[in-house]
């Protein structure tokens, strides 16, 4: 049997641990440091969606980077196709995979600005509502369109809807 004194000691210890956890969480929360970026407080998938809406949907890659990148963002392919500012791009999202802080977007960007259509895989790692790491893989469709791409075919996995 546990004595009252021992139970009180355990309760105080658990209370202190809980208080320390809350204080630590508040200390490292970016909202407490004035970070009011558009992705702060959102899920990684929402952060990437917001970034892509500005970068691809509005054609403002530099503005999207300014809003969503951290000062220490690592961009492994900064010269990838469609990174320069331009008009809006037509992009068909084929698949989005989100696992933890990582988001991968497979999409097809229609031909524009003298560039042929490309199947593009954008990989992102997010941190505190911002993009901390990015890599782009692109495959030209050599004059084809997104609709004619072999990646546009439906795959029957035998699963019932």
What does this structure look like?
By secondary structure, the protein is α+β, with helices and mostly antiparallel strands. It has 2 domains: 34 residues; 109 residues, Nuclear Transport Factor 2, Chain: A, CATH 3.10.450.50. 29% of the residues lie in helices and 28% in strands. It contains 3 helices and 5 strands. It has a 5-stranded mixed sheet. Strand 2 and strand 3 form a beta hairpin. Helix 2 runs antiparallel to helix 3. The longest helix has 24 residues. The chain is elongated. It starts with a helix and ends in a 21-residue tail after the last strand. The mean pLDDT is 88.
Present the secondary structure layout.
Elements: H1 4-27, H2 44-57, H3 61-68, E1 69-75, E2 91-99, E3 102-109, E4 118-127, E5 130-140
Parallel strand pairs: 1-5
Antiparallel strand pairs: 2-3, 3-4, 4-5
Helix pairs in contact: 2-3
Q: Which regions contain 5 or more consecutive residues with pLDDT less than 50?
A: none
Distance between the termini: 56 Å
Decide which structural class fits the backbone. Answer: alpha+beta
CATH topology of the largest domain: Nuclear Transport Factor 2, Chain: A
Query: Strand percentage, roughly?
Result: 25-35%
Strand order of the largest sheet: 1-5-4-3-2
The total beta strand count reads 5
Overall, the morphology is elongated
- The number of helical elements comes to 3
CATH architecture of the largest domain: Roll
Q: How many domains, in number, for the residues?
A: 2
Please write the string of helix (H) and strand (E) elements: HHHEEEEE
Radius of gyration: 22 Å
**What percent of the residues sit in helical stretches (DSSP H or I)?**
25-40%
The overall average pLDDT, rounded, is 88
Taking the sheet with the most strands, its summary is: 5 strands, mixed
CATH class (first level) name of the largest domain: Alpha Beta
């Amino acid at each position: 049997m546990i004595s009252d004194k021992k139970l009180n000691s355990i309760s105080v210890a658990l209370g202190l641990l809980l208080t320390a956890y809350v204080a630590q969480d508040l200390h490292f929360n970016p909202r407490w440091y004035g970070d009011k970026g558009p992705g702060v407080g959102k899920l990684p998938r929402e952060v990437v969606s917001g970034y892509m809406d500005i970068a691809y949907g509005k054609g403002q890659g530099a503005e999207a980077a300014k809003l969503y990148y951290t000062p220490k963002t690592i961009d492994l392919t900064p010269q990838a196709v469609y990174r320069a500012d331009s008009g809006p791009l037509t992009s068909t999202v084929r698949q989005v995979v989100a696992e933890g802080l990582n988001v991968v977007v497979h999409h097809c960007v229609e031909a524009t600005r003298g560039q042929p259509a490309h199947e593009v895989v954008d990989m992102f790692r997010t941190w505190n509502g911002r993009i901390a790491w990015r890599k782009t893989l692109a495959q030209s469709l050599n004059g084809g369109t997104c609709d004619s791409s072999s990646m546009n075919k439906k795959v029957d996995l035998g699963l019932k809807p």
